């Protein structure tokens, strides 16, 4: 049988064809008027995509580069910081802050759950200089209530910097960076913007620029102040990832067309699309008798499903790849073998989603005997979800 290779992972995600073409032909020098025009446009579009009036910085790095920049630019050794952690990426905040000498407090949740607002409030006080969180924790598939966290911070620690890893939250969650008091909101290129890994981007608030003038952690390549100065002239401080910048411009054009010429509307449509694909997948999993790993606050970026009794999730992941050419994700760390994760962020549509559900039915029938569902049970549940979204969209 013919097998097509496809990514269903929460980063890297499938590439937008027009972005791939743009990359291949991006043979320009970065200290030229052509590049300055491209870069300035991409920065302005990134502001719209993030949904912020604040300055936007683009770095040649994977997402973690911007996470490190947030820590090194906004903290000093000895600063008390609060890390809100519900999984592997929350743990990355903890390690990063510790690496820069911060005095790290944790507000944490079990894998598969979100950190409650009361647990966060209990750790907030005027000594907290910065708070770090994930909008969506990709390792478990949960979503945090970023707006409520922002309110809690402003009430109890008004001077604290609020830093949000939105690397899989942007493009899958309706976020209002400025209104919710987010000082730094971070994204990564290999997620919802449908291009390869290699760029990290973030919005930076005015209070954050002020904080940078007094912080004492070492920084050089990731000195955001240097990038801000260069960006004002349409340039980057060092050699930018030119091809990825060209790809990002093409991705924004695609999103703009999704929004009928309006990029902000295109972004909303992308979020709604992810919500739909995620809900199709959750309903299908439940109809097939599977349990969700993050049932109370599931993200639209990725759906985590617990492997059925007696089945190792590694076998599900391997069978997806071998039989259908589809790359899905295993659990990370302790969750490996227990859960599998299917992504919805970026360039995924109805056909991708319905087909993965059909493939999952075939795989479960093979790995978990006796089969306890009729073929089509998951697909049917997903069809109902799609029909509801389609009816809503056509009534607008
Ligand atoms: C992918 C991802 C990152 C960044 O990882 P990199 O490998 O550095 O790009 C950070 N946080 C979350 C929530 C992610 O999903």
Describe the model.
It is a single chain. The protein is globular and about 65 Å long. The protein has 13 helices and 15 strands. 44% of the residues lie in helices and 15% in strands. It has helices at residues 17-24, 33-50, 63-74, 88-99, 117-123, 146-156, 206-214, 224-232, 242-258, 263-287, 313-324, 350-367, 377-394; strands at residues 6-7, 55-60, 80-85, 103-108, 130-134, 136-137, 142-143, 161-165, 184-188, 199-204, 291-292, 302-306, 326-327, 329-330, 339-343. The protein starts with 5 loop residues before the first strand and ends with a helix. It has 396 residues and is an alpha/beta fold. Bound molecules: pyridoxal-5'-phosphate. Residues 10-11, 62-64, 89, 134, 138, 165, 167-168, 188, 197 line the site of pyridoxal-5'-phosphate (PLP).
Keywords:
single chain; 396 residues; alpha/beta; 15% strand; globular; binds pyridoxal-5'-phosphate
Order of helices and strands: EHHEHEHEHEEEHEEEHHHHEEHEEEHH
Q: Mean of residue pLDDT?
A: 97
Percent of residues in beta strands: 15-25%
Tell me the Rg in angstroms.
21 Å
Q: Please state the structural category.
A: alpha/beta
> Looking at the structure, what is the overall shape?
globular
Low-confidence stretches: none
The tally of strands reads 15
Topology (elements, then pairings):
Layout (H helix, E strand, L loop, with lengths): L5 E2 L9 H8 L8 H18 L4 E6 L2 H12 L5 E6 L2 H12 L3 E6 L8 H7 L6 E5 L1 E2 L4 E2 L2 H11 L4 E5 L18 E5 L10 E6 L1 H9 L9 H9 L9 H17 L4 H25 L3 E2 L9 E5 L6 H12 L1 E2 L1 E2 L8 E5 L6 H18 L9 H18 L2
Parallel strand pairs: 1-13, 3-4, 3-5, 5-8, 8-9
Antiparallel strand pairs: 2-10, 6-7, 9-10, 11-12, 12-15, 14-15
Helix pairs in contact: 1-9, 2-9, 9-10, 10-12, 10-13, 11-12, 12-13
The protein binds pyridoxal-5'-phosphate.
The site of pyridoxal-5'-phosphate (PLP) has 13 residues, from helix 3.
């Amino acid at each position: 049988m013919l097998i097509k290779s496809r990514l269903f992972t929460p980063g890297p995600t499938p590439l937008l064809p027009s972005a791939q073409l743009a990359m291949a032909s991006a043979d320009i020098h970065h200290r030229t008027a052509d590049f300055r025009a491209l870069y300035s446009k991409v920065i302005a579009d990134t502001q719209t995509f993030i949904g912020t009036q604040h300055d936007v910085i683009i770095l040649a790095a994977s997402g973690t580069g911007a996470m490190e920049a947030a820590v090194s630019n906004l903290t000093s050794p000895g600063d008390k910081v609060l890390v809100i952690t519900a999984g592997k990426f929350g743990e990355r905040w903890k390690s990063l802050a510790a690496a820069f000498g911060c005095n790290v407090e944790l507000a944490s949740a079990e894998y598969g759950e979100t950190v409650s607002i009361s647990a966060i409030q209990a750790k907030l006080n005027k000594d907290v200089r910065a708070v770090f969180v994930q909008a969506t924790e990709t390792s478990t598939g949960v979503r945090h209530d970023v707006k409520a966290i922002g309110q809690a911070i402003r009430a109890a620690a008004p001077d604290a910097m609020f830093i949000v890893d939105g690397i899989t939250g942007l493009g899958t969650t309706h976020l209002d960076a400025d209104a919710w008091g987010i000082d730094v909101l971070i994204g990564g290129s290999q997620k919802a913007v449908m291009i390869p890994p290699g760029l990290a981007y973030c919005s930076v608030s005015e209070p954050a620029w002020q904080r940078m003038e007094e912080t004492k952690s070492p920084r050089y390549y990731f000195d955001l102040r240097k990038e801000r100065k260069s960006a004002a002239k349409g340039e980057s401080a060092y050699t930018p990832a030119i091809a990825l910048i060209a790809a990002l411009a093409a991705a924004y054009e695609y999103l703009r067309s999704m929004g009928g010429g309006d990029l902000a509307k295109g972004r909303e449509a992308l979020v709604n699309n992810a919500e739909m694909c995620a809900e199709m997948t959750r309903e299908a999993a439940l109809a097939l008798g599977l349990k969700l790993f993050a049932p109370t606050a599931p993200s639209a970026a990725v759906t985590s499903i617990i492997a059925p009794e007696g089945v190792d999730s590694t076998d599900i992941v391997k069978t997806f790849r071998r039989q259908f050419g589809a790359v899905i994700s295993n659990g990370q760390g302790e969750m490996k073998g227990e859960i599998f994760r299917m992504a919805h962020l970026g360039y995924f549509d109805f056909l991708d989603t319905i087909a993965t559900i059909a493939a999952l039915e075939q795989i479960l029938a093979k790995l978990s005997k006796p089969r306890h569902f009729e073929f089509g049970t998951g697909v049917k549940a997903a069809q109902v979800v799609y029909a509801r979204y389609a009816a809503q969209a056509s009534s607008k």
